[in-house]
Design a protein that fits this description.
111 residues; Arc Repressor Mutant, subunit A; three-stranded antiparallel sheet; two-stranded antiparallel ribbon; 5 helices; 18% strand
């Protein structure tokens, strides 16, 4: 349930208990604010996966740059998955390394 909500850019579910009953609240509101959503939409939902969108939103608020370690933490992925996803964004022209063979990347500004 948590993954599905995250996958669709929605807030995580909330659980509560009272006596013998429990309640699950599913929010139909996005994680990101309007400005961030508008900015993320330039990349197209079919081009990048939900982990990459999460990373781009993170980078948007952190100087539009990130490291491989940032992606591993934000995306909750291993080193190999982080490397593959970042390489994919490099090939798509979304990010570039700060220096050759660097593990830090910056987002390419689109017009």
């Amino acid at each position: 349930m948590f993954q599905e909500m995250d996958h669709h850019g929605l807030r995580p579910p909330e659980f509560s208990t009272e006596g013998f009953f429990f309640t699950v609240v599913l929010h139909n509101t996005p994680i990101y604010d309007e400005a961030t959503l508008r900015w993320l939409n330039q990349f197209g939902a079919s081009t990048i996966n939900f982990r990459q969108r999460r990373l781009l939103a993170y980078a948007y608020f952190h100087g539009k740059s990130f490291s491989t370690a940032d992606y591993q933490n934000v995306g909750e992925v291993d080193r190999d998955t982080a490397y593959r996803d970042i390489r994919s964004m490099v090939k798509l022209g979304i990010v570039v390394p700060l220096k050759p063979k660097s593990r830090t990347y910056r987002i390419i500004e689109r017009l």
